[in-house]
Amino acid sequence: MSTLSTFPVTTFSIVARNPLNDDLGVATASKFLAVGAVVPGAEAEVGAIATQSYANTSYVPRALAALRAGIPLAQIHQAFAATDEHHSQRQYGLVDASGDSVTFTGDDCHPWAGGISRENVAAQGNLLVGSMVIEELISAFESSREAFPERLLTALVAGDRAGGDRRGRQSAALLVVRRGGGYGGLSDRYIDLRVDDHVDPVAGLRRLLELQRLYFERPREEDVLVVEGEIAERLTRVLVAAGRLDGERPWGPISEKALRELAGIENLEERMLDEGRIDRVVLTHLERLFGR
C-alpha cells in the first residue's frame, strides 16, 4: 500500500533526451525545500523521470528498473495507476532512451496542473499560475540551439519567467546523465546541480552550471597551448602571485609541480593536460584569480 506525503511537491519540471548523443536529463523548480532531492531521477541509456505533487519517490527506482528490463512507458504508467491508491494526486513525466515520453497529471492535483509530452520531452507542473508556464517551458526547450544542459536550463528559466509555482520560489535542480560522463569518468552523473533554498534558485542554478563547465569540462583541442615563451612566462607570473613559486625561473619540473598543486587547490584537475601543455581556459581563469 502506498502512502501519501503530508506536503505536496508543487513544482514544474522538464524531462528530456538529447537525440544527438542520448544524454537524458531533468530540470525542475519549486517553492519547496531541496526539490532536487525528491523530483528528478535518471539513468544513462535507460530513462529519466520527474515525480511530483505528493511525490511518490518509489516511482523513480521502479520506473528505471522497468525501463532497464525493456518494459514500455505505457505499461509503467499502468502499473503506477494499478498499485498506488493515491495515484489521482500524483504527477510525473518520463522519457526513455529511445525518446518515447509520457506525462501524467492526476485529477486531484492542485490547479493549475497539467503537462505536455512530445518526442524526446515531457513537461509538467502543478499549483502553477497557469498553462502558459508549461507552454513556455516546452517552447523554449524546442527552440533553443544550446548544448543539452543549457537547453534544459533555458526551458526552466522560461517557465519561471512565465510565473512558475504560484506560491513563489525556493529551490531548483538540474540532473543530466551520460555513460561515463561523471567526475573522472567513473559515474554517469554528468551534471547534478541543486540550489536548495534561495530567493532566485533558477538564476543560482545557471551560475552553478557555468562553474560546472569551468571546473569539469575537458579542454577543447583549439584551446590547448604549449607551455613555452610567452605562455610559460604568464604561467610563471601566476604561480609567483599565488605563492607557489618564490621567484620567476625558467619553466621546468618545479614549475610543473607548482602548477599541478595550484590546479588541485582551485579544483581544475579535470582540465589539466600532460606536462608542457595548458588549457587556455585554465590559464585565463588563474590569471583572473591572481590579478595578472
Structural summary, described in words:
The chain has helices at 59-68, 73-83, 132-143, 148-161, 201-216, 229-241, 253-265, 280-289; strands at residues 11-17, 24-30, 40-43, 47-52, 91-96, 101-105, 114-118, 121-125, 171-177, 189-195, 224-226, 277-279. It has 2 domains: 11-216, 4-Layer Sandwich (Glutamine Phosphoribosylpyrophosphate, subunit 1, domain 1), CATH 3.60.20; 221-289, no CATH class. The strands form 3 sheets. A 6-stranded antiparallel β-sheet has the order 7-8-1-2-9-10, with helices on one face. Strands 3-4-5-6 form a 4-stranded antiparallel β-sheet, with helices on one face. The protein has a two-stranded antiparallel sheet with strand order 11-12. The protein starts with 10 loop residues before the first strand and ends with a helix. The mean pLDDT is 95. Helix 3 (132-143) packs antiparallel against helix 4 and helix 4 packs antiparallel against helix 5. The longest helix has 16 residues, at 201-216. A hairpin with a 6-residue loop joins strand 1 (11-17) and strand 2 (24-30). It is built from 8 helices and 12 strands. The relative contact order is 0.13. The protein has 292 residues and is of the alpha+beta class. 34% of the residues lie in helices and 22% in strands.
